[in-house]
Specification:
about 240 residues; alpha/beta; Rossmann fold; 7-stranded parallel beta sheet; about 15% strand; binds 5-hydroxy-NICOTINAMIDE-ADENINE-DINUCLEOTIDE PHOSPHATE
């Protein structure tokens, strides 16, 4: 309650649920993704569930550092602080290809969004999170732990993201940094990928993120945790 939460990739899927959960829990939320009209829709959806919520929308492409920086500044200008940053924006192609047949630009685009996007988000948010002794949460993937055929770009990006979060924790002792690993989630991204079996809901990931930033789970700093916990409704009341 009363926290300021910045979410990337908040236009749909897991990011939208995360923003909605926080708003329902009494936080002020900053929604970012690339399209203003979509963000406006998400804002309206959040306000229908949590009419008193403070919701700021800022169009951002996470691969563009100045855009991320501008959004973080807008958040701090509006709310005066930043307590929780969730780097959630992510990209996977429905049909990945073997490295030998891959288009290089397409391969690096996944790294750009998933890894560089998280770098850009961390770099802009960390000074503010240090001030508030806040949380930096990156949405990784359970896939980081596997070797799946034709999955090199996505898996490597999420593998690197885990180590990136360890560095964030190492270099910023006052910030609680964690990587959260959803399983196969029923979102646009999840449903497009034939390798996923689509068992989990975006709400499950959102509940996990909310729990991790509730003050009850600080011991995970620098580590990754699975989002496959059955936390239920109870944890939405922090
Ligand atoms: O994906 P989806 P999820 N700049 O496609 C945004 C991870 N994960 O919710 O700009 C800024 O519904 C995009 O916004 P827009 C996954 O790797 C998932 O499933 O409007 N934003 C949208 O809001 C990812 O890190 C599964 O297109 C950009 C959001 O990202 C996170 O969960 C399993 C952007 C994507 O929404 C959320 O994925 C797993 C950019 N350049 C991990 N590019 C799963 N679904 O099964 C994209 O283990 N976005």
């Amino acid at each position: 309650k009363g926290k300021v939460v910045f979410v990337t990739g908040a236009s749909r899927g897991i990011g939208k649920e995360i923003a909605t959960f926080y708003a329902q829990a009494g936080a002020s939320v900053v929604l970012t993704a690339r399209n203003q009209a979509t963000l406006d829709d998400v804002r309206a959806s959040i306000l229908s569930l949590a009419p008193a919520a403070e919701v700021l929308t800022v169009p951002v492409d996470v691969t563009q550092p100045e855009q991320v920086q501008g959004a973080v500044k807008a958040a701090v200008d509006r709310f005066g602080r930043l307590d929780i940053c969730v780097s959630n924006a992510g990209l996977v192609y429905p049909a990945d290809r073997p490295i030998a047949k891959e288009d290089a630009d397409r391969w690096w685009k996944v790294m750009e969004v998933n890894l560089r996007g998280t770098f850009n988000t961390a770099q802009s948010a960390l000074p503010h999170l240090s001030e508030t002794k806040g949380y930096f949460i990156a949405i990784g993937s359970a896939a980081a732990q596997y070797l799946l055929p034709n999955g090199s770009a996505y898996i490597l990006s999420k593998h690197a993201l885990n180590r990136f979060v360890e560095f964030v924790a190492l270099e910023n002792p006052s910030v609680k940094a964690m990587s959260v690993h959803p399983g196969a989630v029923m979102t646009a991204l999840g449903m497009e990928n034939p390798q996923f079996s689509h068992e989990d809901t975006a709400q499950l990931s959102a509940a996990t993120v909310l729990y991790l930033t509730s003050g009850k789970a600080d011991w995970f700093s620098g580590r990754y945790v699975s989002a496959n916990w059955d936390l239920g409704e109870v944890e939405r009341d922090w």
